[in-house]
Amino acid sequence: MLQALFRKTRADFSSRPLQTVLLFIVIAAAAATLSLALNVQASSREPYERLRREANGADIWVTSRSAGTDLNRLRELPSVTETGEPYMVSWENYGIRIGEKKQQFALVGMGPDLPKFDHSVVTAGRWLDGAGQRELVVDSGAARLLGLDIGQEVDLQTEEGTQTFTVVGFAVTASRAPAPNDDPAFAYMLPATLQALEPDAIFGQSPEHSYRVGVRVADGLAVFEFLEELRVIVPGPLEIRAASAVASDVGATTEFDVIFLQVFSVFALFAAGVIIANAVGGQVLSQLHDLAILKAIGFTPQQVVQAVFVPNLVLSIAASITGVMAGLLLSPFFLNRSASLLGVPAAAAFNPPLLILTVIAVVAIVTLSTIFPAWRAGGVSVAAALAGGDREGLATSRVARLAAASGMPQVAVMGLRDLSRRRMRTTMTVVSLVIVVVTATFSLGLEATFARTMDDPSAVGAPPYDIVADRDTYRDEDARALLDAHPDVESYAAAYYAGGRVGNEGFDLRGIDGDFTARNWPLREGRMPGRAGEAAISTVLANRHGWQVGDEVTVDLADSAAATFTIVGRYTDVDGNVMTVTHDSLPGDAPPSDYFIQVRPGVDHREFGNSIIEASGGNLDPELLSETMRDIRDQFRSVLVALNAVLLSIAGINLLSSLLLSVRERQHDFAILKTVGFTPRQVVLSVFSGSLALALLAVVAGIPIGLLVTRGVFVLVSNTAGTGDNVGTMPGITWLLPILPVAILLAALATILPARRASNLRVAEAMRYE
């Protein structure tokens, strides 16, 4: 029996090499997409963990922010197994500008000898020299953003003006994500140099001048347990940062890639299942004579099922293993962004259980798609098999009869005739094409969202202005004078930031000095605040705390007494947990951090940005929101194009396979058509008309489904991004129109080989075959 199955399997593969190759490609592509999604998700933290091992990094970093805090007492904690040396960090406004690009820095004072425990890792150049008082080692991510070179002299912007330093190296630390994930970035200098920059600073006694140290704790200790121990012996305000939180920040680089890969992998697996079921059903119909012979020589129905099922099982195992390995090899492409910033190789973690699970999942889908047609083959009697199976499916199509009655050309009628002859095959072919239309609709929705956002940043929860300019070290009065005098400024508002807390939940408190009614904020309910004591909250903050418009909320303010705010509105904010109030609701007299600028219509944003950079001596740092969105769009566009191409290929293969089976079954029909005078061109048009009808049917059915799926994915992506609301833009008719010519092109390409076979068919051979 096993030998017979082996011979039958080998014969099946050799008798239909093209179909075997096509099925192999489809299964491998589906497996590769699923493997890619799972590997990228499982390996998103691997680059960071590799860095932490190289840095001999700590588990938790503790930052002192007030007088009387002795970080040396951390050694007394029973859970602490190792402690690093505290180092100085200045969080004052420091920046480096290179042309249009600027990066903020926190200055870190470290000695020339890197410690063995929890040290920074040099990714290029060298570490600080003991005699190098004007040397800098710069965060690798920031160096990449600015385009810095080793040995380059840079001007460090300070409150007292610029000072020149030489960049001698790039480095990363396990204590925080590199720029742009974390801002400001770290720049390292000798402690004496930092103290000379800020001679009056007392480190460890204020939020602006802190001491920071890394500790290693006992295995399995939770962060909150460590915090409880810490508060007993080290009172006062402290900031702690766990390695797990840093890993999450680094992993966020691939967060959206994972979402898109997961969505497309589900589509690909579903499409692959449809195609396999379709192909196996066609195989059964084409092998009825062989199956009858098997039954005649003594094969039981169960053995016939095995004869149909085993070849496809073997093919699926080989293809899924190939696809899984391809997904593993492609994973570094998606991990490269975070890995390159961390200065480590981009490699996916080899996870055998995950790889085996992927193979099992794909094989299970193939099994479910194969078992029903195989079971039907086992139930066909010898007489029915020799007669050609169920002939009722070969009756004239209702669609064809309607087409003939409506006066359509006979060529088109013959092409449409096949649509309901094999209803299951037609349905599955249309379903696979619908999946492509759905994914194309989703991708066009993303393009529409980016296009709208580049014109109106508030569409995704950004401030309803064209430009956000960071003040950095520029004096507030000088910045306002510059903006007031600039002829291209239509309006602007100053933004102030403070920390707020309700219970154990912290969030950003943003104060705006300007007219809220002058701009169209992305409100979902109510209005923006109009006076002191009123607040508008982001949708994320509202959902997290269950706050409603009209509620009164008491907020603990940093370094100040608590304040009570009445919630008057709820709006979408790209920054997530934000409460927006009027400037006079905030304590203290700190200057603003940013300016939200609206330029006059027709003004080029880049030229305007360059003009205020020059006018401010490089101190104002404008972010052009349209350019930011364009960069994000370009980052994801290549991924979406590749995934759409995979699904388009899968659907094209299914359409090609269906047409080949159809042409084979209709050889007798084509022979008759040629006998009565059909030319080869008319035969080709007949095959194409059926293919075109399937493609058009998929477009009609797929676009409404695609719009529903697009809305659902937008909600998922919005929640992941922290906006807490659906900020996507649904594609309109002008965006969806390109789907139609692509569907027609796909139908034409899939028709080439089957139509050629049909047009080259010899009448004598076809009649003899029948």
For the secondary structure, the number of strands is: 21
Please give the radius of gyration in angstroms.
Answer: 33 Å
Structural class: alpha+beta
Task: Please report the distance between the alpha carbons of the first and last residues.
Answer: 31 Å
Percent strand:
15-25%
Would you identify the regions where 5 or more consecutive residues have pLDDT less than 50?
390-395
What does this protein structure show overall?
The structure is a single chain. It is built from 24 helices and 21 strands. With 770 residues, it is an alpha+beta fold. The protein has a 6-stranded mixed β-barrel with strand order 3-4-9-6-8-7. Strands 13-14-19-16-18-17 form a 6-stranded mixed barrel. The relative contact order is 0.11. The longest helix has 42 residues, at 301-342. Helix 1 (2-15) crosses helix 10 (301-342), helix 8 packs parallel to helix 19 (625-665) and helix 15 (423-455) packs across helix 21.
Outline the fold blueprint.
Blueprint: H1 2-15, H2 17-43, H3 46-55, E1 60-64, E2 80-83, E3 87-98, E4 101-109, E5 121-125, E6 135-139, H4 140-146, E7 153-158, E8 161-172, E9 185-189, H5 191-197, E10 209-217, H6 223-233, E11 238-242, H7 243-251, H8 255-286, H9 288-296, H10 301-342, H11 352-379, H12 382-387, H13 398-405, H14 410-416, H15 423-455, E12 467-470, H16 476-485, E13 489-502, E14 505-513, E15 523-526, E16 534-538, H17 539-545, E17 552-557, E18 563-571, E19 578-582, E20 594-599, H18 605-615, E21 621-624, H19 625-665, H20 667-675, H21 680-721, H22 733-736, H23 739-759, H24 763-769
Parallel strand pairs: 4-9, 6-8, 14-19, 16-18
Antiparallel strand pairs: 1-10, 1-11, 2-10, 3-4, 3-7, 3-10, 5-8, 6-9, 7-8, 12-20, 12-21, 13-14, 13-17, 13-20, 15-18, 16-19, 17-18
